[in-house]
Amino acid sequence: MSTPPGARPRRFRPWPRSLGARLTATLLCLTSLCLLAFGTAGTVLLRRSLIEEVDDRLVRLWRTEGEDMPPPPGEESPPPFPTDLRTFELDADGEVRRVVGRTTSDDALPDLADRDPAELRSLVGRPFTAPSTEGDGSWRVLTSESGDGGLRVVAQSLSDVENTLDRLVIIETVVGLTLLLAIGAGAVATVRLQLRPLREIERTAQAIAGGDWERRVPAQDPATETGRLGAALNTMLGELARALHERDRSAETTRRFVADASHELRTPLSSIAGFAALHRQGRERGVVAADARTERWMSLIEEEAQRMGAMVDSLLILSRFDETPHLAPSDVELGEIAERVVAAARVRSPDRPIELHVAEPVFAVADAERLRQVLDNLVGNALLHTPPGTPVRVAVTRADRPPPRGPGAVGTLPAGVSEVAVITVRDEGRGIPREELPRLFDRFYRAGPARAAPGTGAAAPGTGGGGAGTGGGGAGLGLAISARFVEAHEGTLSVDSTPGRGAVFTVVLPLG
């Protein structure tokens, strides 16, 4: 199976990940090693013991003087029944003569052809192992010197020893596998029983992550580690719940204060702007005497009143949207919204090359007015914070998967999204420092002078969008409002920038 482009190859992990599986696997591995060591030691010791018994028997036969001596030549006769003992002589040249113990059905002997007589004489009185002349068996051999310069050899087959060891290995294997199965079953049951408190803690953590802040770990025996862990977690959760309640209460108080203050500020700001306009109309009618200094001051008062009015409107929008994020979704064509935004921007900045690229119609269920405000803010932001004549490019496309998110991003797409709409606003200005990208969508955040166009000072990137009335009036609220609107659509808004190469803002909306 091929790996999708951009995806990391899945690594093979032979060792289990869960704690219970690891404990069980570790126990079975240790038990297997112990059984293997026990079986190996038992087999080796039994083999040594059996061979020692064979050696003792051979030594007793070797010490027998004159008893059971091989019959003279011509009088050799087979034993009345098969035996695993052999007694024979070797002449000075190492040739076998006068064998006792061999039958017609079992004529195997120790194979001493590879050992010369001198080597065999050096082994007199010391048992050694030799291969068999028939089959794959082996013999235990003991030699002694005879009076004519030859060697007398007594030997016993090790076939019984080898058969006994083979049966022992089979028994150990069967018993070992049976024990492993029994120990494995017992280990699984024991581990599951002992890890039950940890599963309770896991379920509690999942419930809390899902929003159930009042959930607590069930009480356990405080004498156990899991009981003490659960008690410590419950204490920590209680403190966190109190802190969260305090935070929510503080945030709600602040939100109400901002909303009330913004609402109350609208009237005096309107009055200030009205008085400034009345002064201008009086001067035009000749009622008020013309004074250059007064005119400049009144003009500044009117501009600042309008700026504060725009900021108050933005605060009201954010406060109301935080309280009840109301949308009016309908079937909209995103390319048409982008086209209207670009047309309005071209009217405001006729000297700017503003391009629009829509490869195909992209339909979505969204609030058209809110999306237009988002694009107005992003395009206005690009126009405001780039030098005159800098190109701005807007593109609307459809994609099978979300594009990579930049270092500064807000919002999360729903799980299982198979198709998305991607809207990008790209400029070729001075860019934004990388360290400022993660905070770019924060409220009232004002970026440094690197983003500001010549002559504008250290304006905030969130000050664009005056055409929609939600630019924030230079207070750093435009991008915060855009991010809030995109999040309400279950989409993402991200920014990526390289200083000296411009910035690109990307809106991703789910389609299916």
Automatic annotation (TrEMBL):
It is found in: Cell membrane. The keyword Transferase applies. One of its GO terms (molecular function) is phosphorelay sensor kinase activity. GO terms for cellular component: plasma membrane. Keywords: ATP-binding, Kinase, Membrane, Nucleotide-binding, Phosphoprotein, Transferase, Transmembrane, Transmembrane helix, Two-component regulatory system. Residues 192-245 form the HAMP domain. SMART domains: HAMP, HATPase_c, HisKA. The keyword Membrane applies. It catalyses: ATP + protein L-histidine = ADP + protein N-phospho-L-histidine. GO terms for biological process: osmosensory signaling via phosphorelay pathway. The chain crosses the membrane at residues 168-193. Pfam families: HAMP, HATPase_c, HisKA. Residues 260-512 form the Histidine kinase domain. Its EC number is 2.7.13.3. This is Sensor-like histidine kinase SenX3.
